[in-house]
Amino acid sequence: MSKNADIKGILFDKDGTLIDFNRTWFPVITQLAQQLASGDAVRARTLVEQGGYDWDQQRFRSGSVVAAGTIEDLVDLWHPGLGTDERTRCVKVYDGFAVSEGAARAVAFDGLHGALALLVQRGFILGIATNDSEAGARATAAALELGDLFTAIIGYDSVARAKPHADQLQLFAAQTRLLPAQIAMVGDNPHDLEMAHAAGAGLAIGVLSGNSTRAELKALSDVILDSVMDLPEYLAQI
């Protein structure tokens, strides 16, 4: 029997896996940087670069704060040394901006809805686990008319520890009454797959639709697909 025969749930990363990371988040991060820089274009460009943007490649680097971190990580990067209360207020402001602008600017990959709907039709339980906030993930799913396809939507603020820790996958397992071994984790970033291994997921699937290369994902993946749209065919063959 295939290792994957007992997979009943599929947990997806959001950015770079379900939506085009760079087309969605570059304008959002740029707008935040411009506000912080008070119109200083050079400083704003530097802030975006600090967040992980490669201006030559025109994409965020894999593992960078923007590509792999949380809003809290971005606040700590751009506002070092804040006191606890001030940091909490800043995170709240940034989170609110990310919820509204991230949803408004979200660009889903072509064919995404059809692929996800087919997986649901085949009986898989779907979820999202993202280092975006839960509110941001829910707003994006709603904006893209995907919300009804997901049984659970989990953000960095839904658990004690964000990726690469096991918490999000463990919460999905608890909410769906599945064992971690019955869950496939699908993501474009090493921290997605590290979470899969930390939680004992049944399958770690890397996708090349985000900011990571095949070489960066290879050691952590049971299989690497071009995108989520290849998932129904892959799962039908196992």
CATH architecture classification name of the largest domain: 3-Layer(aba) Sandwich
Average pLDDT figure: 96
How many separate helices? Answer: 11
| Rounded radius of gyration (Å) | 17 Å
Classify the helix fraction into a percent range: 40-55%
Percent strand: 5-15%
Report the CATH superfamily of the largest domain: HAD superfamily/HAD-like
Unreliable runs: none
- CATH topology label of the largest domain: Rossmann fold
Can you walk me through this structure?
The protein folds into 2 domains: 9-20 and 108-236, 3-Layer(aba) Sandwich (Rossmann fold); 22-105, no CATH class. With 238 residues, the protein is an alpha/beta fold. The protein is globular and about 55 Å long. The model has no long low-confidence stretch (mean pLDDT 96). Strands 5-4-1-6-7-8 form a 6-stranded parallel beta sheet, sandwiched between helices. Strands 2-3 form a two-stranded antiparallel ribbon. Strand 2 (53-54) and strand 3 form a beta hairpin. The longest helix has 22 residues, at 84-105. It has 11 helices and 8 strands.
Key descriptive features of the protein:
globular; 8 strands; 6-stranded parallel β-sheet; alpha/beta; 238 residues; 12% strand; Rossmann fold
Could you give the topology of this structure?
Layout: E1 9-12, H1 21-36, H2 41-50, E2 53-54, E3 59-60, H3 65-68, H4 71-78, H5 84-105, H6 112-121, E4 125-129, H7 134-143, E5 152-154, H8 167-176, E6 183-187, H9 190-199, E7 203-207, H10 214-218, E8 223-225, H11 231-236
Parallel strand pairs: 1-4, 1-6, 4-5, 6-7, 7-8
Antiparallel strand pairs: 2-3
Helix pairs in contact: 1-2, 1-5, 4-5, 5-7
